[in-house]
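WARN retry 2 of 3 for item q-0093 after timeout on previous attempt; input resubmitted unchanged.
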Amino acid sequence: MDEFFTGNALKEIIDNKIHRLAPLIKLGVSIEELKERISKKEEKKLFLNFKKKIENNINNNKFSIIAEMKKKSPSAGIIVANYNPQKIAKIYNDNKATCLSVLTDKDYFSGYISHIKDIKEEGIKLPILCKDFFVHKWQLYAAKSFGADAILIILAGIEETLANELYEEALKLNLSVIIEVHTIEEAEYALSFKDALIGINNRNLKTLKTDIHTTYEINNALRNYSGPLICESGINSKEMLLEIERKTKIKTFLIGESLLKNLDKNSIFSVL
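OK item q-0093 returned
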């Protein structure tokens, strides 16, 4: 367990998120104003279809890499000391990454939602996942207003009713949705989100420990599922990625730390 936490890491992060959001929702930019900002971006055609791009790759038997960017994490500490999201996004784009994942949580990842806007203003034409801990629909509108194309719902972090509400609201906003799971029970429930992608997180967000066998177990439980599965966390080499694909047929991977620590010559990109 990281020194930040005294018990359940995910619960502490979620509790902190709810506390941080309260004044923003009450006194900050209203949902109506965020809707106006979104409309202006839609007029300029600034949004991309995250899910469709991954599905197209799967249909063409191609790998997809959702390349993640973050300055730090509770499990790894500082990952990139001189963190420049636009520069990293350009490197990922030059290496033919499929999509981007941008951490926007400030307290635990040193992220900002404005990083999504900064990347889009650089003219980088990659769909962007706003990676955060979503607990209120206001966050969906904020994410979209800054240019996000997709959001993530962590089933282990919120009640099923809220997960359903966020999912339905995200679809209304034409946001792609990743339903993130860590257990077989969560994965089976995730099947009810018919238009979502399912992300298998090998990291237990309660303990922050990683076990790649999580993907194998959940993939086996979902062997009749025909939609896109994403393998997340713990992929540290091209060889590991290919081994996972060989055993599971999963071709979509969300990778952060191992890319960020070796941006210039990372063999993982050679699968694309």
